[in-house]
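queue> holo job accepted (adenosine-5'-triphosphate)
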Amino acid sequence: MHAFLEYTVTGLTVGSFYALVALGYTIVYGIIRLINFAQGDLSMVGAFLGWTLLVSLGFEHLPIYLAVVAAFVIPMLGTAVINLGILQFAYKPLLRRSLLAILITALGMSLLLQNTVLLVYGPSINAYPPNLLPTTGFYLGPVHVTYVQTALVAVSLLLMGGLVLFVQGTTIGTAMRALAQDHDAARLMGINVDAIIRVAFVLGAMLAAASGVMLGIYYIQIQFTFGFLLGLRAFTAAVLGGIGNIPGAMAGGFLIGLLEAYTTGYVSGKWEDVIVFAVLIGVLVVKPTGLFGERVAERM
Amino acid sequence: MALLEVRDLHVFYGNIEALKGISLDAEPGQIMAILGGNGAGKTTTLRTISGLLRPRSGTVTFAGRSIVGLEAHVIVGMGLSQVPEGRRIFNVLTVEENLNLGGYIIRSSRELVRTRKASVFKLFPRLAERRAQLAGTLSGGEQQMLAIGRALMSEPKVLMLDEPSLGLSPILSRSVLKTVREVANRGTAVLLVEQNARQALAIADRACVIETGSVVLQGDAATLAKDERVQKAYLGGFEAVASG
Ligand SMILES: Nc1ncnc2c1ncn2[C@@H]1O[C@H](COP(=O)(O)OP(=O)(O)OP(=O)(O)O)[C@@H](O)[C@H]1O
Ligand SMILES: [Mg+2]
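queue> job finished
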């Protein structure tokens, strides 16, 4: 029982990272039916930008709040610009072409980001400052929870809450939901569809970058390859929750995180990915609309 | 010079020429009815004016300015609004959210959005009762009210309606067309596409008949209602089939 609770805490922590990346998949897919496979790599890029600020530029020596805020905000903005570039130069010329062409381009963008980071930072593992946040923790009943875990989950939930408020409560957010259903009708409302698509790409990138920085703070070690598996896990989470569905992506992220933690705990870390991808295949075969999905147009 | 002038519009779908030189005008305070059978090119005409389709040639001039080639959302911003064929309301949004999007171009002024919504609710009290309901769960007639109310949120200078009475009971379609007349009386230029020629001609000021992409008749609504060809093709009861 004790072990189970420990695994649960780990699962929820990691799951919150997956949820953030999965939201990026889901927001973009909801609007233009595009699976932006670069999503996981954007998270990786965000992690490296955060590392550059904290370690190379020495932000880790700044007052802790300033350091942390800068290490989140600047990578989020930088990654947003990169994702806008990808949209403009890679996807936009293809949006009216075949789905396959876009899919292959998306995979290409994922490789492009990986190789760019490889070129700039090299193949070695980079380490986040291990003592950025207090490494101690507290007991929640019998379970030990670190302050880092608490802080990271809190930031994730804050970002998710902000996203939900934006999508549900603002006119731009309402326009995003309308676009999920009918682009031409949205145009007839005077909505600049291209601008809303850009908003979706900015949001997706910012969430990914935030998760990347959190992964760096949590796991300490980062390498240019980590975005690929992260992306696949988050994609699984998005599909599990019903791609295009915002609450679904969050739930899917936490479920995949838990599944991974239990597998590592009870079976073996080697089986993590096997289990996660078995879930992906299982969902796609048995219920491709995901746990919470209805018709595609009804989601978000 | 008319507020909206469409001149010699040629529109293609691939190699198929759907519009073969359409010309028509819309004037403030007047309803121009556009009649014609299935596949004549009525929807294509409205979609082209709204900027959803690009004509191969021809001009669309609004208030003296060419709007061909402008993006659809820019055209809405200039004051041309459309109630599309099949209503196309946003099912997953509430009635109120649909109206908010209708007021997208005035979204920076919450006050303006609120007063416009209030006047739509005054026009269609039924929508006020259902403001928090998902639009997809409205009845067909209520959805049509919403589609019109949504288009009125931007207070357009030109309002285009594509078969607003489709699928409505005779009573309801009369009431919808009456509302369209009221909107025109406030000074809006209205382009009204209708299959229901009798009702459309009854409220319109002028009318044109489109057949296979060309305007074959144009004139006073009252004159057209008496025209033999119109009577035969569009007002003849059950055999009323466009000769196409
Ligand atoms: N997306 C499209 N691709 C190819 N052809 C099209 C397309 N849309 C319309 N057409 C063709 O263009 C012609 C005009 O169509 P349009 O929809 O404008 O007719 P309409 O007058 O609105 O008819 P209805 O009264 O049935 O709505 C038709 O022959 C139609 O088949
Ligand atoms: Mg039509």
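queue> Residues 4-86+156-242 of chain B form a domain with the Rossmann fold fold (CATH 3.40.50.300).
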